[in-house]
């Protein structure tokens, strides 16, 4: 269950990062509200996951999920470049996330 909570926290990180792009400096109420709610939820869920996971593992996986998800969202939603080097770097982050998951006892 701890890993699912951490996954949800990472996904909420993607949500707030994408929503932040649309806030126009927090002048648009809907994306601003989504950003703030998703930020809060993400950090709360991260804190819950840290009850059972080591700090370094939980934080690295949380930021990794957020990084990969946000990069993919940028490519899919905003037409950001998806070159081979960029995709290779994203794959390295995914490999790091999987590696940390494999060497960390279940929470």
UniProtKB/TrEMBL annotation:
<keyword id="KW-0472">Membrane</keyword>
<keyword id="KW-0812">Transmembrane</keyword>
<dbReference type="InterPro" id="IPR037185">
    <property type="entry name" value="EmrE-like"/>
</dbReference>
<keyword id="KW-1003">Cell membrane</keyword>
<dbReference type="GO" id="GO:1990961">
    <property type="term" value="P:xenobiotic detoxification by transmembrane export across the plasma membrane"/>
</dbReference>
<dbReference type="InterPro" id="IPR045324">
    <property type="entry name" value="Small_multidrug_res"/>
</dbReference>
<protein>
    <recommendedName>
        <fullName>Guanidinium exporter</fullName>
    </recommendedName>
</protein>
<dbReference type="GO" id="GO:0022857">
    <property type="term" value="F:transmembrane transporter activity"/>
</dbReference>
<feature type="transmembrane region" description="Helical">
    <location>
        <begin position="33"/>
        <end position="50"/>
    </location>
</feature>
<keyword id="KW-1133">Transmembrane helix</keyword>
<dbReference type="GO" id="GO:0005886">
    <property type="term" value="C:plasma membrane"/>
</dbReference>
<dbReference type="Pfam" id="PF00893">
    <property type="entry name" value="Multi_Drug_Res"/>
</dbReference>
<feature type="transmembrane region" description="Helical">
    <location>
        <begin position="57"/>
        <end position="78"/>
    </location>
</feature>
<comment type="similarity">
    <text>Belongs to the drug/metabolite transporter (DMT) superfamily. Small multidrug resistance (SMR) (TC 2.A.7.1) family. Gdx/SugE subfamily.</text>
</comment>
<feature type="transmembrane region" description="Helical">
    <location>
        <begin position="84"/>
        <end position="103"/>
    </location>
</feature>
<dbReference type="InterPro" id="IPR000390">
    <property type="entry name" value="Small_drug/metabolite_transptr"/>
</dbReference>
<keyword id="KW-0813">Transport</keyword>
